[in-house]
Design goal:
By secondary structure, the protein is α/β, with parallel strands linked by helices. It has 2 domains: 7-207 and 331-386, Crotonobetainyl-coa:carnitine coa-transferase, domain 1 (Rossmann fold), CATH 3.40.50; 237-310, formyl-coa transferase, domain 3, CATH 3.30.1540. Helix content is 39%, strand content 14%. It has helices spanning 16-26, 59-65, 78-89, 102-105, 110-116, 141-148, 168-191, 201-207, 214-219, 229-233, 255-264, 271-274, 283-293, 298-305, 318-323, 325-329, 367-373, 378-386, and strands at 7-10, 30-35, 48-50, 56-58, 69-72, 93-96, 121-126, 195-200, 237-241, 247-251, 312-314, 333-335, 341-343. Helix 1 (16-26) packs across helix 7 (168-191), helix 6 (141-148) packs across helix 8 and helix 7 (168-191) crosses helix 8 (201-207). The longest helix has 24 residues, at 168-191. The chain starts with 6 loop residues before the first strand and ends in a 5-residue tail after the last helix.
Length: 391
């Protein structure tokens, strides 16, 4: 497997870091979850299904922590800190997602760990990065979207932002961190030296706006959903309600698609408006399409549009999406031998696909093995448990 032989220490919680290390675990890396006493917070979030031992386990936790190991350490104790330092000496990658400065104050920052392991790739995932005036600001996904200007784009043309349905900042930062880690690992093969990867939700969001920020950079004018080509202004890149309260998305602005649908609907005279870059000029087309789509149910439109040369899709809810045969065909919905369903890994290779480890660790279940590997005796491990160092 691509990452076999790599050891990853993961202190992160919730979404970005755990998703990053899940991608690595599925492709052969040994990922050790270092959890605080009480465990990863997502262990407590329902719904729950039985784990391998028959105990209730959070589906959220399972989705991001399968195939990993778990040890509980109280990093506020000298003994807990020393165990983590010893683990870091054996590791290739170290992932944390605390507020900038927190790990330094614990004596576990990049400089401290680099002194013990110069080859270590240390990845910090944060909201705003480790430099700049916002670096210490606490927030989650939507806060970075608000300050990056992308939350303002999530409206229906009325100027009122809505809560994003997908945590794009969180997941984007996780993937940016993964890319940075893999680049640093490659560079290490040449230099022999580690690196500090500074992955931020804010930065990745800004990097996603290249197709939207033209007027921002040239005119100092913010894009608006009413006029933006790909955010609600274009007639053929928009969402339309159907007779039964469902929706159809038109997803391609190419003129051939406008010719196809408007010809089918008997309004070829509107095609010329779709050729204009000025989305305000396309408003008559949108008005016509709003009325037209209201005349049939979503299922009726699916049947009709399937016969046309057109970029489109029915808007599915997540149950319908997970039942779509394409999901299974792509290996993105997997079932283990207990009948539990899992999401597949999107990092795909033809010759060497991911091998999913369906077991998700019980809290701290690997502590004894890991400490034994580091040279701790059974008596010392018992003392650490008694003193609360292991949680």
């Amino acid at each position: 497997m691509k990452l076999e032989g790599l050891r990853v220490i993961d202190l992160s919680m919730y979404l970005p870091g755990p998703h990053l290390t899940l991608m690595m675990a599925d492709h052969g890396a040994e990922v050790i979850r270092v959890e605080a006493p009480g465990g990863e917070p997502s262990r407590k979030y329902g719904p729950f299904e039985p784990d391998d031992a028959g105990n209730p386990q959070s589906v959220w936790f399972r989705n991001y922590h399968r195939g990993k190991k778990s040890i509980v350490l109280d990093l506020k104790t000298p003994a807990g800190k020393e165990i983590l330092l010893k683990l870091a000496e054996t590791a290739d990658v170290f992932v944390e997602a605390f507020r900038p400065g927190a790990m330094d104050r614990l004596g576990l920052g990049y400089a401290q760990l680099k002194a013990r392991n110069p080859r270590l790739i240390y990845c910090s995932v944060s909201a705003f990065g480790h430099t700049g005036p916002l670096s210490s600001k606490p927030t989650h996904d939507m806060g970075t979207q608000a300050l990056a200007g992308t939350l303002a784009l999530n409206d229906n043309g009325d100027g009122m932002p809505v809560v994003p349905g997908l945590p794009g900042a969180d997941m984007g930062a996780g993937m940016a961190g993964l890319i940075g880690v893999l680049m640093a690992l490659y560079r290490r093969t040449i230099t022999g030296q580690g690196e500090h990867v500074d992955a931020s939700m804010y930065d990745i969001l800004l990097s996603f706006t290249g197709h939207l920020n033209g007027t921002v950079l040239t005119e100092g004018k913010a894009p608006e959903t009413r006029t933006g080509r790909s955010i609600g202004g274009a007639a053929f890149y928009n969402v339309y309600a159907t007779k039964d309260g469902r929706h159809i998305a038109l997803t391609g602005r190419e003129l051939k698609f406008a010719e196809s649908l408007l010809g089918y609907l008997g309004r070829p005279d509107l095609v010329a408006l779709c050729a204009q870059d000025d989305c305000v000029a396309q408003e008559p087309v949108k008005e016509f399409l709003r009325a037209a789509f209201k005349q049939r149910t979503q299922a009726e439109w699916v049947e009709a549009l399937s016969k046309l040369e057109l970029g489109w899709a029915p808007v599915l809810n997540m149950v319908e999406a997970f039942a779509h045969p394409h999901m299974a065909a792509r290996g993105m919905l997997l079932t283990d031998d207990r009948g539990r369903k899992h999401i597949g890994n999107p990092v795909r290779f033809v010759e060497e696909p991911a091998q999913i480890g369906f077991h998700s660790p019980a809290l701290g279940e690997d502590a004894t093995d890991l400490l034994g590997e580091l040279g701790y005796t059974a008596a010392q491990i018992a003392d650490l448990r008694r003193d609360g160092v292991l949680g």
